[in-house]
Amino acid sequence: MHVICRAKKFDSLHAELVSKLLRSIGEAPIISQKNDAGQTFLHVAAARLNCRVLAQCLTIVPNLVTGVVELDSAGQTPLSILARHLECLGGVPPTPSHDEVRAASKPVGGAEVALEVEDEVSGKLVRITCKASILKGSTWATDLREGCCLKVDSACCRSACAVRAAMLFLDGQPLALSDGRTLWQLLSFTVQYRLPGDLRRASISSLLRSLEDPINAPVLPMLIRGAQAAGLCEEQRRYVLFKMLTTPDALASAGHSNHGLQRQAKVVQAVLSEMEHQIRQMKSRSANVHHPDEGVDANTRRTPRALDVPLRGPEMRQAVSRLQPA
Asked: How far, CA to CA in Å, does 272 sit from each of 58, 204, 221, 245, 289?
């Protein structure tokens, strides 16, 4: 497996060979063998920036997910190796600044409606009253009548605190939340019901800043899988990806049982998919900046590859030196 994962080009033949090997050996001890640098084949695949073989391995043997946070002799994990690639390819966005976003306009008087949410903290149904004009552009627009009660889908939000914060924000008050889970539910609520863009931007800004606190690490698996649907921009998605790659506790939060390991495997597959997307985006930007007709030589024009990243570990370092372009 180490040899296959070192392949310069991972094509359909390599994919078929990996599939047959994994299906034949399953979870036998041989699958976790290490080289002289203490690296499993998952480390080698990450060093080659071979996201496809990593994703394929997790699809066939989900329990291999425990290996993506396993340390080699130099203290690196497959995820931390991918994080170093991300830094080399395009840098990592800084922590989002505290740009306070306010609602564009404050609602005037008019009919009042109630939002009913199944609150996970109290275990009760909580009703929150607000001006109907706040919701005039939402998916509830056609249901707004004086005194009506609108039910919040518990699949997207089970936090009365999040719904209350949303209504206060749309009533002209600043967003004052710092708990990652509550902010994620607020963002999900905002997106599902198409609430004003100012609220979505404020939710994203506060949520990304909350990731600086390790206590909010459990939000990362949900965010990495829903970043695109939630409307995060490329830079914000890259920031979330880097935090996911460098926060081991985030993956562990998905659970440790058999079902938990399967959930972890799906999270890592989402990480690998986002990693491939970011690589394509950064290479595309680099190609646009350094167009061949501008007289930039090949060495300057070339986007740094996985093999250009200075990785520790004698065996990996020797492999890099052999394959560097002349």
From this structure: 11, 22, 12, 10, 26
